[in-house]
Write a structure and sequence with these properties.
four-stranded mixed sheet, transport, protein-disulfide reductase activity, electron transport, 2 domains, alpha+beta, 7 helices, Glutaredoxin domain-containing protein, GLR_AS, Glutaredoxin
Length: about 170
């Protein structure tokens, strides 16, 4: 039962709530299913789903947000705080002069924010990849973590940021 509920929760985009379906072994009802715990968990999922639906973001909103940031900043990074690839790319960029660029910005996307999915969908539309980090320099997507590593190896990363520093 637990694995089915976990799969359902993951399928509807609530993988972070899958743990809420875990029923302690001592909390079983007469039917053996732990009905009271399951009802509480279902209620929590329903409230979370309703909150996400209320705060949904349109693709037009995501486009305006992303395009505005990309055009406003010479170096723009869309990342997630818990993503090791994001941190690696940001550190590599910093060591190669990105922080000397006057208009350098990092936006951390939150997995709990319903706008994140729409923003990542739009990033996929314009860059071909939905993953983070998505890094832009002078309005052009230069890729993600592996792309920045390749630029470093090729000797083009530091000169790129040096040309942008004011």
């Amino acid at each position: 039962m637990r694995s089915l509920l976990t799969l359902v929760a993951a399928f509807i985009g609530l993988a972070s709530l899958a743990a809420a379906f875990t029923l302690p072994s001592g909390n079983r009802s007469a039917d053996g299913m732990g009905s009271a715990s399951l009802r509480r968990s279902h209620s929590h999922v329903a409230k979370h789903t309703q909150r996400r639906a209320r705060q949904s973001v349109t693709m037009a909103d995501a486009k305006a947000y992303v395009d505005g940031l990309v055009s406003e900043h010479r170096v723009m990074v869309f990342a997630k705080p818990e993503c090791p690839y994001c941190q690696s790319a940001i550190n590599l960029m910093a060591m190669n002069g990105a922080k000397k660029v006057k208009s350098f910005k990092i936006v951390y996307l939150d997995n709990e924010d319903p706008a994140t999915d729409t923003i990542q969908d739009y990033l996929q539309e314009i860059t071909g990849a939905r993953t983070v980090p998505r890094i832009f320099a002078d309005g052009k997507c230069i890729g993600g973590s592996s792309d920045v590593e390749e630029m470093k190896s090729a000797g083009t990363l530091r000169p790129l940021f040096a040309s942008m520093a004011e």
